[in-house]
Amino acid sequence: VLGSIGYVVYDGYVARHPEDQFVPDPNKKTLVILGTGWGSVALLKKLDTENYNVVVISPRNYFLFTPLLPSCTTGQIEHRSIMEPVRQILRHKKAAVKYYEAEATQIDHARKVIKITDNSEIKGTITENEVPYDMLVIGVGAENATFGIPGVRDHSCFLKEIRDAQAIRTKIMDCVETAAFKDQATEEIDRLLHMVVVGGGPTGVEFAGELRDFFDDDIKKLIPDIADRFKVTLIEALPNVLPMFSKQLIDYTESTFKEEHIEIKTKTMVKKVTDKSVEAVITHPDGSKETVTIPYGLLVWATGNALRPIVKDLMSQIPAQKDSRRGLAVNEYMVVQGTRDIWAVGDCAVAGYAPTAQVASQEGAFLAGLFNNMAKTEALENKIRELSSNLNLKPGNTAEITQEIETVEKRLRRTRDVKPFHYSHQGSLAYIGSEKAVADVAWLNGNVASGGKLTYFFWRSAYLSMCFSTRNRVLVSLDWIKAKIYGRDVSR
Ligand code: NAD
Questions:
Q1: Separation of CA 205 and ligand 1 centre (Å)
Q2: In angstroms, what is the span from residue 304 Cα to ligand 1's centroid?
């Protein structure tokens, strides 16, 4: 009985019946989507999967709600609360979607195939393969920018993936417990408890705020003997942090950080990293430069995005991409310039917007609408073709059929009229520690800038409503309550 329904219900989950599994339809185009981040998942959410043979390829088998990643570094939020399994997302689609947990290593633009590698620890007999496509969406995001600065990759932690947040969480406690070791030298305690964050964008600022909270709320109480020596320094090459926010909010953030004893070193460019210190050049107000060595226990590198090798390689295959530096140049329909059947969304695409989650998800949703429309257009064109051939076969019904053709043509004109992508900026939000946040929110025809405790509650409710699923929302809320009542979990 359950088989005929097409679903099997067990343990509260609805599983796809084997008959419902992915079987490519030779009459449909194969749409391959690379990545499971903001852009790709927003596309998948709204895509009518009945129109295409949809294949998803990503080495990460979950969607990650990145805005709350800094909270995972201190245990304020448990990492699984902000992850949503891809299989779970795909289960809800009308027609089955094929998912390969694999890294797409190369796109062969001429042959229209993608080379994939299975990077999992357990290896099968086949670890490399090719996936052909008719249409391709690239949503692979970006990697961490290091600008080739020596030592960065070897000694610092990034803050992009779940494993980064886990590594930071472990390292914070490692520094604290080592600093508390019997008879530890004072100088060494100071080094171990000096947490340095490089990059004054939202990632660096939010992490610095979360870190300070962790020490003030929990470590201070649990290990009071070392608490006074804890220090956070935020290093930024530009004259101020959070350049995307208004001057008023930048000032508010800087003064809040002063109260929280987070030192901001602006106009300071890190040039070299070793296992225990960073070397940075400070530009003083009179223009003179000074090189300083800053010892650290934990170093977090948050200096923005760089191109992934697969994107660089594709750009080198397409002459129209020659002058693009920051990613795949796309037109107003997100089509990769110089191609007809490749689209790009999110941080790997250059559409004239900042590389944010908000932009990526709007681009993904736009593409879903575009693809749903393309399928509708094709169906209407086929209908007209069919009606036109009926005109010759059934000459007696000419008036009726002509009328029907006109109606379908009218619908076709409406369907074809797809407006180009337009980004609607809802605002920027950032947590800055001590239960304070800053927000630049679009309001009517202008912008509202606000900072403080009330904004913090707005930040929490906005992020909660943006979580992928109700399950995520419940888990995040429970984590907040748990941390409030019992404190953060400091075990490693
Ligand atoms: P970012 O690009 O916004 O900031 C990186 C900063 O690092 C820059 O200000 C740069 O001047 C500085 N920098 C670079 N090299 C340096 C060096 N050697 N020494 C010192 N400073 C150096 O990076 P991000 O914070 O990771 O953000 C990436 C993107 O994601 C941005 O578009 C951002 O708006 C978005 N984002 C938004 C939010 C939010 O809205 N809350 C949160 C995270 C990320």
A1: 9
A2: 4
* Best mutation site among 203, 205, 242 for ligand 1 pocket (most ligand atoms within 8 Å of CB): 203
Domain 2-142+307-356 fold: FAD/NAD(P)-binding domain (3.50.50)
> By alpha-carbon position, which residue is closest to atom 30 of ligand 1?
356
Domain boundaries along the sequence of the chain? 2-142+307-356, 152-305+424-486
Whether the CB of 244 sits within 6 Å of ligand 1: yes
CA dist., res. 230 & res. 74, Å (int) = 15
CA 67 to centroid of ligand 1, rounded, Å: 13
Q: What is the mean pLDDT of residues 227-239?
A: 95
Please work out whether the CB of residue 304 comes within 6 Å of at least one atom of ligand 1. Answer: yes
Please tell me the predicted confidence (pLDDT) of residue 8.
42
Mapped to the 3 state alphabet, what secondary structure does 301-361 carry?
ECCCEECCHHHHHHHHHCHHHCCCCCCEEECCCCEECCCCCEEECHHHEECCCCCCHHHHH
- Cβ of 201 below 6 Å from ligand 1: yes
Asked whether 59 lines ligand 1 (CB < 6 A), one says: no
> What is the arithmetic mean of pLDDT over 54-71?
98
User: Can you read off the two tokens belonging to residue 223?
Assistant: 């290990």
pLDDT for 227 beyond 90: no
What amino acid occupies position 333?
Y
Q: Is 141 in the pocket of ligand 1 (CB under 6 A)?
A: no
Is 82:476 a contact under the CB 8 Å cutoff? yes
Would you tell me how many other CB atoms lie within 10 Å of the CB of residue 186?
A: 8
Q: Report residue 17 as tokens.
A: 């019946």
Look up the ipTM and state it.
Answer: 0.98
- Whether ligand 1 lies within 6 angstroms of the CB of 430 is answered as yes
pLDDT tens-digit readout, 166-211: 999 999 999 999 999 999 999 999 999 999 999 999 999 999 999 9
Å from CA of 363 to ligand 1 middle: 21
Q: Do domains 2-142+307-356 and 152-305+424-486 have the same CATH topology?
A: yes
Q: What is the pLDDT of residues 457-482, one digit of tens each?
A: 999 999 999 999 999 999 999 999 99
Helix crossing, 162-179 with 202-214: angle to 10°? 40
CATH fit for domain 152-305+424-486, picks 3.40.50.300, 1.10.1740.10, 3.40.50.2000, 3.50.50.100: 3.50.50.100
Residue pair 207/300 in contact by the 8 Å Cβ criterion: yes
147 touches 166 (CB < 8 A): no
CB of 204 sitting under 6 A from ligand 1: yes
